[in-house]
Specification:
Blueprint lengths: L3 H29 L5 H13 L22 E2 L4 E2 H9 L12
Antiparallel strand pairs: 1-2
Helix pairs in contact: 1-2
InterPro entries: Ribosomal_uS14 (IPR001209), Ribosomal_uS14_bac/plastid (IPR023036), Ribosomal_uS14_CS (IPR018271)
Organism: Pikeienuella piscinae
Family: Belongs to the universal ribosomal protein uS14 family.
């Protein structure tokens, strides 16, 4: 089980990403627009740099919904390999059976 503080930190980052997503996208579009003057594009870059660092989507890390583990994460199931194995062994995952030969 992951530390509760790490899970809380990740949730806080997700809230910031959601809050600033539209503003960040607009500033990035302005900064990339070749038809604008260099000064306007530079001002957009400065405003983008003033936003909180944790509002960037690249700062997010996928975590298991069951245990909070950050590594060995399956996107499709939104859980780690360890949690998946435990749930599959107990018969909780439909269609998944333990292999034996």
């Amino acid at each position: 089980m992951a530390k509760k503080s790490m899970i809380a930190r990740e949730e806080k980052r997700q809230e910031l990403v959601d809050k600033y997503a539209a503003k960040r996208a607009a500033l990035k579009a302005t900064a990339r627009d070749e038809s604008l003057s260099m000064e306007e594009r530079f001002k957009a870059r400065l405003k983008l740099a003033e936003l909180p660092r944790n509002s960037s989507a690249t700062r997010l890390h996928n975590r298991c919904k069951v245990t909070g583990r950050p590594k060995a994460y399956y996107r499709k199931l939104q859980m780690s390999r360890i949690a998946l194995r435990e749930l599959a062994s107990m018969g909780q995952v439909p269609g998944m059976v333990k292999s034996s030969w």
